[in-house]
Specification:
Elements: H1 3-8, E1 11-12, E2 20-31, E3 34-41, E4 47-54, H2 57-69, E5 78-86, E6 95-103, E7 108-109, H3 110-116, H4 122-141, E8 144-145, E9 154-156, E10 165-167, E11 174-175, H5 192-202, H6 221-236, H7 252-260, H8 267-270, H9 275-284, H10 295-300, H11 302-305, H12 316-320, H13 323-340, H14 358-366, H15 379-384, H16 388-401, H17 409-424, H18 428-435, H19 450-469
Parallel strand pairs: 1-5
Antiparallel strand pairs: 2-3, 3-4, 4-6, 5-6, 7-9, 8-11, 9-10
Helix pairs in contact: 4-6, 5-7, 6-9, 13-19, 14-16, 16-17, 16-19, 18-19
Protein name: non-specific serine/threonine protein kinase
GO molecular function: ATP binding; protein serine/threonine kinase activity
EC number: 2.7.11.1
């Protein structure tokens, strides 16, 4: 039986309402995968977290990989998964959804926890790091790369002093077979080879579809780089690689710092921090993956195993009490994800006559109008794309990845973008993203990086879709 089938046998098809009461109005948080709600198990009155996803292969893969890892005490546990048909108030018909019941994490995110500690010490940071390392060691032992390791995805079980920290959100996790071509990351935590992979993609002929026979790949070692950045932030309250210039993409000065691992330990914050802590950061923030500590090396490092008190109070807690500082970092992460994330493009492109991707199919159909003016209607896509605003956004992606032959590509891009803008100007993510690409409301005033535009629009589609589907 395949791994996919093994995961599917644990998905119940009975109604979740037989065993749980769901609070549809209380939301614990909202990510790109949609809001997380509170549910209560009827038999025990236990409060649990409920994540709802549209039932599609990507969601099932997230569930599968999370379930593979969830037996570890430092990974958020999945209790049950239901495949139910759910109809929200705004919908005319029900949709198939996965309802994922998980343990409740009452202690909040890592940054929030640190900000609540008046005396967050280096020893505490070391203990948190050890738990993160143990969670990651478990994932890597199963050949799973998390690919989105950041403080927002590290949650405390409760508010007790000894509450465990747990890794969550496997939405970007992937089996690592040495071919992880899709850099999924948040700017402050991105490893050099991920940027190199991005740069290689952008240098391809079309700027969208890679043609290299041996493209740059990266693997689980990127998670290790992320741990190094998280340790640095926990210790001092700011990231090792930063830029004075706010940008929709990673600014050149910040990119250069990451690519060369150029960081230091400013005296004001680091003078009281141990050399052991600095040593593990140095060994994790190595440009070359083969020189970086392995997860086993992290767990064996003296900083995680020393008997010294390490009771020096860290400056990070004071800095993180400023909600604006924390919100600024997190907002920068969220805003830049659209540009930071490159799609899985390391696939053999099918001939257009056999392609089944809805966006490419739309482009094929638009270009298939016979000389007598007869237009081919796509009934399969008609119902799916009934929302005009979303359809206009998909037209932009279609123009980015497969422009029609013989047309002025820049003019056509301005035309479809203007149409999409008319129907989607209320989308903040789209507004901010287009501002970074010199959009004046009618046209682009500068040369457009179509990869960046496609990713911004893709992110906008996901956000708008989830707002509709996950209310």
């Amino acid at each position: 039986m395949s791994e996919d089938n093994n995961a599917d046998i644990f998905i119940k098809e009975t109604s979740i309402l037989e065993e749980y009461n769901i609070n549809w109005t209380q939301k614990l948080g909202a990510g790109i995968s949609g809001p997380v709600r509170v549910c209560v198990k009827k038999s025990t009155q236990e409060r649990l977290a409920l994540k709802i996803l549209i039932d599609r292969p990507k969601a099932r893969n997230e569930v599968r990989l999370h379930m593979m890892c969830a037996t570890h005490p430092n990974i958020v546990q999945i209790m049950e998964v239901y495949a139910n048909s759910v109809q929200f108030p705004h919908e005319s018909t029900p949709r198939e959804r996965l309802l994922i019941v998980m343990e409740m994490m009452e202690g909040g995110e890592l940054f929030h926890r640190i900000s609540q500690h008046k005396h967050f010490t280096e020893k505490m940071a070391s203990q948190v790091t050890k738990q993160i390392g143990q969670a990651l060691e478990h994932c890597h032992s199963l050949n799973i790369a998390h690919r989105d390791l950041k403080p927002e995805n590290l949650l405390f079980k409760d508010n007790s002093l000894d509450a465990p920290v747990k890794l969550c959100d496997f939405g970007f996790a992937k089996i690592d077979q040495g071919d992880l071509m899709t850099p999924q990351f948040t700017p402050y935590y991105v490893a050099p080879q991920v940027l190199e992979a991005q740069r290689r993609h952008q240098k391809e002929k079309s700027g969208i579809i890679p043609t290299s026979p041996t493209p740059y790949t990266y693997n689980k070692s990127c998670d290790l780089w992320s741990i190094g950045v998280i340790i640095y932030v926990m210790l001092c309250g700011y990231p090792p690689f930063y830029s004075k210039h706010h940008s929709r993409t990673i600014p050149k000065d910040m990119r250069k710092k990451i690519m060369t691992a150029s960081f230091d330990f400013p005296e004001d914050e680091w003078s009281q921090i141990s050399e052991m802590a600095k040593d593990i950061v140095r060994k994790l923030l190595k440009v070359k993956p083969e020189e970086r500590l392995t997860i086993e090396g992290v767990l064996e490092h003296p900083w995680l195993n020393c008997t010294e008190a390490l009771d020096n109070v860290l400056p990070s807690a004071q800095m993180m009490m400023d909600k604006a500082v924390v919100a600024g970092i997190q907002q920068a992460h969220a805003e830049q994800l659209a540009n930071m994330r490159i799609q899985d493009l390391n696939v053999s492109l099918k001939p257009l006559h056999s392609v089944n991707n809805p966006i490419l199919r739309k482009r094929k159909l638009l270009g298939s109008k016979p000389s007598d003016g007869f237009f081919i209607h796509d009934p399969e896509n008609g119902g799916e794309d009934s929302n005009v605003a979303l359809e206009k956004l998909r037209d932009v992606i279609a123009q980015c990845i497969l422009p029609q032959a013989g047309e002025n590509e820049d003019e056509k891009l301005n035309e479809v973008m203007h149409e999409a803008w008319r129907f989607n100007r209320d989308c903040k993510l789209l507004r901010d993203g287009l501002q970074g690409l010199s959009w004046d409301g009618r046209a682009f005033t500068d040369k457009v990086d179509r990869l960046k535009l496609a990713e911004i629009v893709k992110q906008a589609i996901e956000v708008k879709t989830h707002l509709q589907d996950c209310q």
